[in-house]
């Protein structure tokens, strides 16, 4: 079964259409990337899946079921999102404990203490961070908390919006390795947005290349080792990246 399926998705902000006829599928357990330059529409697609962009038409299915245009608890249990900026995605006046407990409270899940400690351990954070505030953590530690929060409901699908681009280069590899390990341990499906082809080559099996709101090519990331693409735009992206893999 496919974890995600998009067919003929169009997205508009007001009268301006920003995504045109996007179709792709992500198999259960797969790691799939949307790549392209800034403004190509890739993050907008992610927001539509997450119900953060409402002006869309077409079909979005999650685990074989049509995606509602509204937030719903059943969807949140299945699919969670990790945002680009760990400095903006965590409430500055709430402790890490409170941030991680909120999804459990919303969904009426018990065993809070054990769940929080287990998830801190899973993302490589010592329990001493539990009652600290976000400003007391480094950027990499904040992103680990954001990943932990996304995993608190034990989703099967993770939407990753440039999850390392706001971090120092020295920290990026740590977070990517963490995400790769968590995917294997928890049998997660990833849909990752990135402009960084080496990151995509490391994290994903397939990718869709977007230009001006349209998909111009879908291919295996193995092509990043050879540069053999069918789209001239993809070849330009590849050349600009200096190659990948």
Low-confidence stretches: none
Q: Globular, elongated, flat, extended or rod-shaped: what is the shape?
A: globular
Q: Helicity range of the residues?
A: 25-40%
Order of helices and strands: EEEHEEHEHHHEHEHEEH
CATH topology: Rossmann fold
- The CATH first-level class comes to Alpha Beta
Give the number of DSSP strands: 10
Classify the oligomer.
single chain
Gyration radius from CA atoms, angstroms: 18 Å
**CATH-level-2 architecture:** 3-Layer(aba) Sandwich
How is the biggest beta sheet arranged?
Answer: 6 strands, mixed
Mean pLDDT figure: 93
What structural class do the secondary elements suggest? alpha/beta
What does this structure look like?
- With about 240 residues, the chain is α/β, with parallel strands linked by helices.
- The protein has one domain (about 1-240): Rossmann fold, CATH 3.40.50.300.
- Helix content is about 35%, strand content about 25%.
- It has helices at about 40-50, 75-80, 95-105, 110-120, 140-150, 170-185, 195-205, 230-240, and strands at about 1-15, 15-25, 30-35, 55-60, 65, 80, 155-160, 190-195, 205-210, 215-220.
- The strands form 2 sheets. The chain has a 6-stranded mixed beta sheet, sandwiched between helices. Strands 2-1-4-5 form a 4-stranded antiparallel beta sheet, covered by helices on one side.
- A hairpin with a 2-residue loop joins β1 and β2 (about 15-25).
- α5 (about 140-150) runs parallel beside α6.
- The two termini are about 30 Å apart.
């Amino acid at each position: 079964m496919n974890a995600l399926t998009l067919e003929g998705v169009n997205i508009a902000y007001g009268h301006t259409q920003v995504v045109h006829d996007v179709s792709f599928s992500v198999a259960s357990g797969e790691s799939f990337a949307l790549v392209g330059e800034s403004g190509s529409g890739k993050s907008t697609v992610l927001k539509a899946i997450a119900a953060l962009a409402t002006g869309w038409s077409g079909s979005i299915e999650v685990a074989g079921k049509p995606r509602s245009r509204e937030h719903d608890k059943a969807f949140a249990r299945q699919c969670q999102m990790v945002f680009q900026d760990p400095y903006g995605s965590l409430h500055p006046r709430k402790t890490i404990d409170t941030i991680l407990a909120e999804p459990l409270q919303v969904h009426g899940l018990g065993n809070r203490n054990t769940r929080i400690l287990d998830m801190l351990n899973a993302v490589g954070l010592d329990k001493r961070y539990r009652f600290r505030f976000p400003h007391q953590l480094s950027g990499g530690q904040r992103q680990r908390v954001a990943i932990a929060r996304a995993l608190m409901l034990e989703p099967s699908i993770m939407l990753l919006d440039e999850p390392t681009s706001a971090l120092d280069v020295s920290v990026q590899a740590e977070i990517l390795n963490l995400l790769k390990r968590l995917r294997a341990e928890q049998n997660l499906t990833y849909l990752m947005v990135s402009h960084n082809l080496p990151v995509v080559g490391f994290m994903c099996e397939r990718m869709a290349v977007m230009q001006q709101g349209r998909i111009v090519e879908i291919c295996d990331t193995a092509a990043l080792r050879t540069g053999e693409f069918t789209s001239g735009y993809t070849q330009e992206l590849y050349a600009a990246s200096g190659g990948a893999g």
